[in-house]
Write a structure and sequence with these properties.
By secondary structure, the protein is mainly alpha-helical. It folds into 2 domains: 81 residues, DNA polymerase, domain 1, CATH 1.10.150; 182 residues, Intergrase catalytic core (hpI Integrase, Chain A). The protein is built from 14 helices and 3 strands. Strands 1-2-3 form a 3-stranded antiparallel beta sheet, with no helix packed on it. Helix 12 packs across helix 14. The longest helix has 22 residues.
């Protein structure tokens, strides 16, 4: 399928993550199969045929976000194919992407974050690791994949800074807050990470990992998420958790305490400030509720 050349370009030239590439591959394979069965080769697709495909997706009951992603994959493919002269023109040039309603990120309250972190009560190597992870996810607004991707060379304890690689391998430097710094120092000391190091490293990537699993390998994203869920269940907030919950909470709480939106954008590594502005909606809701509860001219009169 012609899409493989496009997917290679997306991976190498645009820096898309392997997970994004796989999602695009699934969408384009399904699109190709439908188009071949209904109309012929995708490189001969017309705007009307693509609209028929889009209508089929929408009528199938798929989620709006799923349809929007599939349309984005097909549009990107056809734009690439036209630019590379694999087809005469881009039939999706006038196609509108289905709008996906913006969902407000679900942030924990500050008390809930404190309870989550305080749920790590021990001082064994795994406890020191878990406490450090929770503090860093909340304190620095890291994605779980960014945290598990950290290597020792990415941490500067003296400067209290770390280097993270976000989507598209984009690099950013992030400050390490006091609580996260103290937890990280304890984890990287002799009673923490050193106790979980294997006698023989399986790979250099494992030996350089900041966070290790019980077997001495680099902790996976799934393993880190399991840690978050474990302590969430322990304090009764498991239903509120998602892989990004501490990242969402970090952004929301910073804005609640007066942080500039551009600063939060830089901290989270958002390419567009539009993404960060979602969090201002959360803060505005909180502002309204506080105003309603506390201002004498907002509260209902009782007499």
């Amino acid at each position: 399928m012609e899409a493989e050349e496009f997917l290679t370009w997306m991976l190498v030239e645009r820096g898309r993550s392997p997970r994004t590439i796989e999602a695009y591959r699934r969408d384009l394979t399904a699109y190709n199969d439908w188009m071949v069965s209904e109309h012929g080769a995708v490189t001969n697709a017309s705007e009307d045929q693509i609209i028929a495909w889009l209508n089929m997706l929408q009528d199938s009951g798929r989620a709006r976000s799923t349809v929007a992603r599939a349309v984005a994959a097909v549009r990107s493919f056809h734009r690439f194919a036209a630019a590379e002269n694999l087809m005469r023109h881009d039939p999706t040039a006038g196609l509108e992407v289905p709008r996906v309603p913006l969902g407000l990120p679900k942030a924990l309250s500050e008390d809930e974050v404190t309870a989550l972190i305080d749920a790590v009560t021990g001082y064994g190597p795994a406890d020191l690791r878990d406490r450090s992870m929770l503090e860093l996810l909340y304190g620095s607004g890291l994605r779980i994949s960014e945290m598990t991707g950290l290597s020792l060379s990415d941490i500067d304890l003296d400067a209290r800074l770390l280097r993270a690689f976000g989507k598209g391998a984009k690099e950013r430097v992030i400050p390490i807050g006091s609580c996260a710094w103290e937890a990280l120092v304890e984890w990287l000391a002799v009673d923490g990470r050193a106790e979980m190091e294997p006698a023989v490293w399986k790979s250099r990537a494992d030996s350089e990992a900041v966070y290790l699993n019980q077997r001495g390998g680099r902790l996976s994203r799934q393993g880190a998420w399991g840690v978050v869920k474990k302590y969430g269940a322990k304090v009764g907030i498991g239903a509120k958790l998602s892989p990004h919950v501490l990242r969402h909470s970090c952004a929301t709480h910073m804005l609640n305490h007066g942080a500039d939106i551009r600063t939060v954008q830089e901290l989270l590594g958002h390419a567009s400030i539009t993404t960060t502005q979602i969090y201002t909606m959360v803060s505005q809701e909180r502002l309204f509720e506080v105003h309603k509860a506390s201002h004498p001219r907002h509260r209902k009169r009782t007499s």
